């Protein structure tokens, strides 16, 4: 039986059939009512994803919310593939550099940063909130390199505290760090210099796949570290077709890691 059907039946059981509150066909917690979330947990949906993106410069051609769009879509697809999984709201405030003096992406207008300890605190209390409501597996997922150390730290800290509580927190690092995207692009004939490391082929292609309106196509320019553009690599080579495959590799890596961790009991 599908999750929406289970939610509907549970709601009818709670409040009767006179004026039922029908569940939305969504895996996103923010799209559901609290009673729908409770019914989902009671029906066995006890995994929750905490997705973290970022609000950072992505060159003159790409919107600052790039990571948030990509991680929201990926979290949805991961949740649907895993089953019995809901997705918490995307955290768009992450470590991006210091404020005074500005460093990293904070040198560019519109970027919003959190010190790592504050980022960790937000992630930690998102996980604590979800556990308090009955979720027993929390998956921490980050679309940016600057998120990974903090997510790993939160998972380690909470797993130590909750060792006997029946709740596990998993940092799904393979989504970002072991997904094979660069190797796949190399195999398509792109050089490391063309691929770059920020706002280049990979990032631009993925956003073209999930949110093409977030790209200013006419502003795409090849960039190099230190040139002031915020781009390293060649976004003019990006395509939605490339983005679809790069995105799939990341989603597949995450699903595979979750299933491996579950099978190993880690």
Describe this structure in words.
This protein has 266 residues and is of the alpha/beta class. The protein has 10 helices and 4 strands, in the order H-H-E-H-E-H-E-H-E-H-H-H-H-H. The protein has one domain (46-264): 3-Layer(aba) Sandwich (Rossmann fold), CATH 3.40.50. The protein has helices at 3-15, 34-42, 66-82, 116-132, 148-161, 174-177, 181-187, 192-195, 201-210, 240-264, and strands at residues 47-52, 85-87, 137-142, 168-171. 45% of the residues lie in helices and 7% in strands. A 4-stranded parallel sheet has the order 2-1-3-4, with helices on both faces. Helix 3 (66-82) links the parallel strand 1 (47-52) and strand 2 (85-87).
Described by strand count, sense and barrel closure, the largest sheet is: 4 strands, parallel
Strand ordering within the main sheet: 2-1-3-4
Report the total helices: 10
End-to-end CA span:
29 Å
Q: Share of helix among residues?
A: 40-55%
Per CATH, the superfamily is Creatininase
Give the helix/strand class: alpha/beta
Average pLDDT figure: 92
User: N-to-C SSE series?
Assistant: HHEHEHEHEHHHHH
> In CATH's first tier, which class applies?
Alpha Beta
Can you summarize this structure?
With 266 residues, the chain is α/β, with parallel strands linked by helices. It has helices at 3-15, 34-42, 66-82, 116-132, 148-161, 174-177, 181-187, 192-195, 201-210, 240-264, and strands at 47-52, 85-87, 137-142, 168-171. Helix 5 (148-161) links the parallel strand 3 and strand 4.
Tell me the layout of helices and strands.
Layout: H1 3-15, H2 34-42, E1 47-52, H3 66-82, E2 85-87, H4 116-132, E3 137-142, H5 148-161, E4 168-171, H6 174-177, H7 181-187, H8 192-195, H9 201-210, H10 240-264
Parallel strand pairs: 1-2, 1-3, 3-4
């Amino acid at each position: 039986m599908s999750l929406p059907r289970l939610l509907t039946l549970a709601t009818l059981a709670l409040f009767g059939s006179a004026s039922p509150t029908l569940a939305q066909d969504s895996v996103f917690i923010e799209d559901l009512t609290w009673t729908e979330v409770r019914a989902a947990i009671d029906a066995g949906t006890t995994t929750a994803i905490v997705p973290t993106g970022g609000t950072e410069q992505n060159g003159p051609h790409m919107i600052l919310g790039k990571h948030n769009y990509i991680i929201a879509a990926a979290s949805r697809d991961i949740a649907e593939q895993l089953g019995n999984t809901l997705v918490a709201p995307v955290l768009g405030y992450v470590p991006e550099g210091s404020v005074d003096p500005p460093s990293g992406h904070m040198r560019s207008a519109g970027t919003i940063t959190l010190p790592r300890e504050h980022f960790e605190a937000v992630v930690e209390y998102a996980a604590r909130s979800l556990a308090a409501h009955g979720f027993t597996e929390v998956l921490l997922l980050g679309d940016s390199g600057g998120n990974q150390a903090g997510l790993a730290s939160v998972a380690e800290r909470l797993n130590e505290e909750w060792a006997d509580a029946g709740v596990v927190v998993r940092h799904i690092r393979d989504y970002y760090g072991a997904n094979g995207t660069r190797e796949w692009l190399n195999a398509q004939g792109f050089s490391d210099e063309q691929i770059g490391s920020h706002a280049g082929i990979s990032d631009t292609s993925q956003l073209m796949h999930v949110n093409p309106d977030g790209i200013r196509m006419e502003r795409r320019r090849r960039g190099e570290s230190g040139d002031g553009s915020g781009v390293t690599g060649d976004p003019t080579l990006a395509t939605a077709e490339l983005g679809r495959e790069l995105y799939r590799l990341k989603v597949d890596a995450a699903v595979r890691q979750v299933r491996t961790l579950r099978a190993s009991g880690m």
